[in-house]
Amino acid sequence: MSNERLQVTIEDGVLVKAVEIKTENESQSYIDFVVPEGVTKIGIAAFYRCTSLRSVVIPNSVTLIDLSAFSCCYNLESVTIPDSVLIRPYISKLSGN
Question: Most buried residue, 11, 15, 22, 40, by most Cβ within 10 Å?
């Protein structure tokens, strides 16, 4: 599945990867993306380094947004998330005995 500037891979209802499609002659424009209905999970680092991503709308079918799903999305301004979605936060490894 894809739109003009973002190609996403969905496997068994899980959005596992999104890749920006860039061309040399293209000026910087931003991407507003709507996750397709039927996706149930946003995978780990699924949108990693989608630097042109400006906004994302998550449908009610999504139940979980996994670790670092939007990591390094420097221009991301808004994510619309239904109240029922569980967001798995980044948890750093703690050292200790």
Answer: 15
What is this structure's pTM? 0.84
DSSP single-letter state for residue 2: B
> Do 35 and 13 contact (CB within 8 A), yes or no?
no
Q: Give CA–CA dist 89/97, Å, rounded.
A: 24
Question: Is residue 62 within 8 Å of residue 87, measured between CB atoms?
Answer: no
The vertex-74 CA angle with 71 and 79, nearest 5°, equals: 70
Average pLDDT over residues 27-52: 92
DSSP reduced 3-state for 6:
strand
